Please model this.
Amino acid sequence: MAVEVHKFGGTSVSSVDGLRTAVRVAEDGGVVLVVSAFAGVTDELERLVVEAASGGAVDPGVPLSLCEERAEELGVAEDGEVREVLGEVGDLLRSVVVILRQLGRPDPRLRDLVLSVGERVAARVVAAFLRSEGVEARAFDSWDIGLVTSDQPGNADIVRWEGTRGLVEGLVEDGVVPVVTGFIGRSVGGYVTTLGRGGSDYTAAVLAGVLGSDAFIWTDVDGIMTADPGVVEAEVVPRLSYEEAVIAGASGAEVLHPKAVEAAMNMGVVIRVGNSFTGRVGTVVCEGSPPGPKVVAHRLDVVLLTVRGAKMVDEPGVIGRITSALGDAGVNVLAISSAVSEPFVNVLVSEDDAEAAAGALDGLEGYDWGLREDVGVVTVVGRGVDPSLVRVEGALVGCSALEGVAYTVVVPEEDVEGVVRGLARVVTRSLRSSVGGGRG
Ligand code: ADP
Ligand code: ASP
Ligand code: MG
Model:
């Protein structure tokens, strides 16, 4: 028996309309659902951690009332399990906030504990809603079905799943629809962990791998699109390879988490991305895809470092010294570029890593460096991207991230939207002509 995995994101679980597809697949049976926290709840919980740690006036009432409002809207505020979980997480948040204020820093384990509340509540509310629709649904925390994560707070990996398949299949055979928390886990060492923001997709992909099924990722758009539809007009991309989807996700197309794609690739899971409001599945992510550019992704949360050495021309090991210093400081280098005759190297890092990067470069003797925060990075993803398509006026840096699969340009932040718009037009034209060509 193959139990299908269907994951519903934050907007999808937040209303009766968004849950329409959940009701349909649950009624058909043979499924396990994975759910995210309600829209906005994880952001509010994150804010709570930061504000409590900085000694500010904090009110766990804000994320809690967001959850209560959703439960009311879905007509299940009086469900016993919903009331119980709301009471429990209310107590938890109030105590953790006090500890964070005393600590005076956003302890990563306490942060994970606070963030875990969003998914724990959503699973109970969604299960109660499905029960009110006549489906025998039951809520589970991911550890209740045997998923175990690494100990890494904030970005744990799912590392064990003993007994998971038997347990889920047994429930489904008994006519139960399990509703499992995405994004959160319990670690080998017994800590509550989170898998990285947006990580419910990853829970779903791993669970599908364990169950030997496809992973349906239901969200608020029709699939992976040629660009962020919230920024420019975009079209659905029917098919992406794993490699393309990993790069698109890491380059800013947040619709599908890159960790989910990586897990799916390693476990042989086909991912189908669709719109939970309409039931339409627009994109399949699997092995291989037709050549050509497919997605224009962008990120604004980056900084550009320009590192200059007293002697960099004909000097072996320069790039190695720079990247080792950054690596030793725990900085993840997103992109790097230099030209043959120029005495400097451009390095792109996430703004979260900027401080650590600055410290690491200060420690390098004989190098000067500068930092620009007002930049964004735009990446065209697709096997066989022709760099001549990615002609961008005013680009600060251009580099090929992976031979023939992605092309990246760094541009001033105020130019990002225009560059995305221009490149999305090019990608859409190319996609249309290849689909048309395929048919003809
Ligand atoms: P969910 O809560 O369902 O996981 P996310 O907010 O994580 O949803 O991802 C869906 C959102 O991703 C879309 O609403 C859209 O704004 C954004 N997005 C960014 N880039 C893309 C893209 N290339 N294709 C589709 N959506 C994208
Ligand atoms: N609720 C989590 C977040 O907002 C996980 C997810 O949505 O996938 O990051
Ligand atoms: Mg998401």
